[in-house]
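Handout, section 3.2

Students often ask what a structure token actually looks like in practice. Rather than define it abstractly, here is a full record for Peptidase M23B. The first block is the sequence as you would receive it.
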Amino acid sequence: MPPTGRPVRFTLVGSAIGAALGATLYFNPPVSATPLFALSPKPAEIGSAASAFSPAFAATPPFAPSLADRVPEPALPALAMTGANHPFRGLSSHDSSYPRRSLDATALDWQGSGDSLTATVGAEFLAELDIMVPPAPGLDEDLAAALAALPAGKAGAGDSSAVDLTITVSRGDTLMELLSEQDVPLTEAHDAIEALRASFDPREIRPGHELTLSFEPRDEGAPLFRGLSFEPTIGTTITLTRTAENGFASTKQEAKLVRKVARYDGEISSSLFEAGIKAGIEQTALSELIRIYSYDVDFQRDLQKGDRFSMFYEQYYTDDGRLVRAGNVLFASMTLSGTVMPLYRFEDTEGFVDYYNGKGEGIRKALLRTPINGARLSSGFGLRRHPVLGFSKMHKGVDFAAPPGTPIYAAGDGVVEKAGPFSSYGNYVRLRHTEDYKTAYAHMKGFAAGITAGKKVRQGQVIGYVGTTGRSTGPHLHYEILRQNAQVNPMGVRFPSGKSLRGKELAAFQKERARVDMAFQATPSGTKLASAN
């Protein structure tokens, strides 16, 4: 019996669109014996050719040098053929999950009726080709259908008849591969990528990015690639277009942003970070909240269940309402064990921005208690059983467990006194801040660029990265504060406050504070005020 199932139309093979579904067959000049072959999803269904087949028309298809299309794996047909001198090598598929295959056959006269196709040599019936293929939602079919519906003739640049295809980038995809899959010629794909570099690094394309590719139909040959566009980040659009000289040019456009000010309140049940995310606060804004309170708050020990926090900060949106990024924190408040700790953002007469309490006292202290973000205090200061040596030993600092590569910050302004390997400390940095105070950082994976002896650093500057060098059982930062060259408990040292506002600066601050307080009180939690100042 002949192969059964819904056949696939092959009359478009070799045309500008190509086969919308099914496989591509490669045909070479005859070798010797004329083969008899048939395709079917099930080998058992392949029998002798149907001699009663009556074609309605005859034609010789214009085969291109290389034709290819996708075939879903369940639809890859089995094949039976005669002709010992004409070996079978399979079907061709773009899918990288399966081996590439090709089929040799003689150049034949083709006859078709409806969706079936036969091959003949002269008047002698040779074969019938039917392939069972489920409806495929592939991009190629969408493109083929859209192109087929367009009027014939060339379209100019920007012509309304151009066809757009949207492709979602998957893990492991490269732009070259994505363009090649849409039959963009190799040289054009290369030129397009080179032109794109003027506005965007193609290596930064990430899974989830949506690329819109533009094509225009042509009377002959494959559709012409006109360009592409995509948003690498919300509010940023990269556009690649074909030029009049058949080259490519790219542009980068930033959307005009709408500023809003949002208020969020939350209660801590387990961690500040978890409570903040639950309240709807972006991670970047939460990180800023932690940073500005890190001078006075030990986030490992000071937070209790039921403590509360509030934030009043900027958010920037596109004009169609998509959040692009968080902006400055204008006001924040934490209530820890009943003590309210408000902080306000203020720019002084020298243009320096900092946070101040309600009295105009700056939050910055001489030194940070925790020179690392998001770390867990894994070992405190004092006598302990050493995890490597196995006996009790004075632990002259505190340890913060964190993933390898986590940035380590300078605890205060100062000068690098030592940077390099140092005994059991491994990679080690020591900073001199004042005549009395120094800080030390040990077991580092490596040092930040420029961190060498004699280098001046500022508080909060990255000086290195968490590692496990020296005598260490795992990645962590060993942090020491030295007062008059003797280690002291970093969690017990009291530091003097930073800058306090005076005179006209204090008056300007109090005016700004009153304005922010009024706006904050008037804004319900979770509300965003458009164009607030």
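Discussion prompt for tutorial groups: The two ends are 80 Å apart (CA to CA). How would you have guessed this from the sequence alone?
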